Amino acid sequence: MKGLAGLAAGVVLAAGTAVSAGAAAAEQGWYLRADLSHDWSRPADFHDWNCAGTDPTRVPLYGCATKGSGDFGGSVGLGVGVGYRVAPMLRFDATVTHRPGWRFEGESGFLLAGDEPLRARARTLTGLLNAYIDLGRWSVFEPYVGAGFGLSYNRVEGMELSFPTLDQRVWTPSGWHTSLAWQLTAGTGIVLGDGLVLDVAYRFMDLGRMQTHAGEAPRLRRGAWRILTIDGTEARLRAHGVQLGLRYAF
After folding, report:
1. Structural domain range at position 92
2. Is the distance from CB of 127 to CB of 96 less than 8 angstroms?
């Protein structure tokens, strides 16, 4: 608690110093924004919705002692938004960002020997309401901190599990979920003139649950097909990344 209080006091002190130096940001007004970003996934684990389930039509895929461990790699993001500055140090915006390039890769860990890779493609569409505190202006630089909350539509294409030592592969159903999402960000605007600001930022975000649905899972083992009926699985997507954007005030 003391550490958080010290951090908050430092932010307030920095903001006060910037304003007293006569380096305030622009006055009130609307702005549009467009962003290009790249985000990298933190480690993620897929597990069953009900690892101890006994329903023969929804058999757990991993069980309680196993999980699919890996990460979603990285994805480019394309975003647009509209915002409003309510005071020299405070602004809000609403953004929508599409990240189509996630690719989960990991290991299932069922057996004691040999690789057991699993992989799936995924994409996210995230809408956030964001608030920013601008810490003043030094020359053309306008540093800020911010936070955002909203919803993310997350889709995972069918997961492929491979078991080379068994000559076996399994494909799960695809899945989608609309989840609560949030982010923390810090960056700086670089004033270009004529209402244009180049925005460079770092962020950490939690996009919520990624899941595959319960249903039929084809299995190919040594040339023979069989249909399994499995339970759904889920993992959490957390990521950090960098963003480059343009803001235009009007």
Report:
1. 27-249
2. yes
The reply to whether 160 falls in a domain is yes
Q: Number of structural domains, the chain?
A: 1
**Quick one: tokens of 140?**
């053309």
The tokens describing 67, both together, are: 């999980």
With CA atoms as reference, report the closest residue to 90 among 43, 145, 36.
Answer: 145
Flag whether 219 is in a domain.
Answer: yes
CB contact at 8 A, 244 and 38: no
pLDDT, tens digit, for every residue of 175-227?
999 999 999 999 999 999 999 999 999 999 999 999 999 999 999 999 999 99
Two structure tokens written together for 161 = 């599990």
Across the chain, mean pLDDT equals: 89
175 contact partners, CB below 8 Å, separation of at least 6:
155, 156, 210, 211, 212, 213, 232, 233
Q: What percent of the chain has pLDDT over 70?
A: 88
First to last CA, the chain: 41
> H helices then E strands: how many in the chain?
1, 14
CATH number at residue 204: 2.40.160.20
Q: Is the pLDDT of residue 5 over 60?
A: no
Pairing of strands 224-230, 233-249: unpaired
